[in-house]
Amino acid sequence: SIPIDLLAFFATYLARPFREKVSQLAAAQGAFDVWPMGYCPVCGLWARMGQVSAVEGQLSIWCIGCDHAWRFPRLRCPFCQERDSANLGYLKIDGTDRFRAYTCDTCRRYLKTITTPDTEKVDFDAEYLSSSRVDLTAGFEGYIQDFVGYAAFDMQDNAASRTYRRKA
């Protein structure tokens, strides 16, 4: 009687120690520091959160499945690869610059993002779990976030997934 999204969330965290070891091995070799896709190069799950360095303006995105983070182009949707700035935007949360939802009007998805003053190490788990107001605001505006268990290859056959596959 557990909802599927809740079950996927707990299953992702239960499998994480194993995926995290692979991520650590890849990071030790410098593999996948930069990855042009919005899904994790280590385990294939979609990015769940991003970090923008206020000093450098660099975007890094993070995978909840294996705790891997990689640099990603800032003006591109990680989900459908949209590059047209007219379709990309962001929602400010609570009028602050700390949390934002980077949005795409092509696929209607969003990426929770935290802005930090420099390239400090972010505890993505804590920030992800404590930023539910981002999800509420984005959902209210009509943007979606797939449940946590979706990997890039699990996408349903719809216009957004066909657009992503074509562009990828």
Q: Secondary-structure map with pairings?
A:
Blueprint: H1 4-28, E1 47-53, E2 59-63, E3 69-72, E4 88-93, E5 96-104, E6 110-116, H2 124-129, H3 132-140, H4 159-167
Parallel strand pairs: 1-6
Antiparallel strand pairs: 1-2, 2-3, 4-5, 5-6
The helical percent reads 25-40%
- Overall pLDDT score: 82
Q: Low-confidence spans: pLDDT under 50, at least 5 residues?
A: none
Molecular shape: globular
How would you describe the oligomerization state of the chains in this entry?
Answer: single chain
Tally of DSSP helical segments: 4
**Class per helix and strand makeup:** alpha+beta
Distance between the termini: 37 Å
Radius of gyration: 15 Å
The SSE string, one letter per element, is HEEEEEEHHH
Strand order of the largest sheet: 3-2-1-6-5-4
Task: Considering the chains and any ligands shown, give keywords for the structure.
single chain, 168 residues, alpha+beta, six-stranded mixed beta sheet, 23% strand
Describe this structure in words.
It is built from four helices and six strands; from the N terminus they run H-E-E-E-E-E-E-H-H-H. It has helices at residues 4-28, 124-129, 132-140, 159-167, and strands at residues 47-53, 59-63, 69-72, 88-93, 96-104, 110-116. A six-stranded mixed sheet has the order 3-2-1-6-5-4. A hairpin with a 5-residue loop joins strand 1 and strand 2. The longest helix is centred in the first third of the chain and has 25 residues, at 4-28. It starts with a helix and ends with a helix.
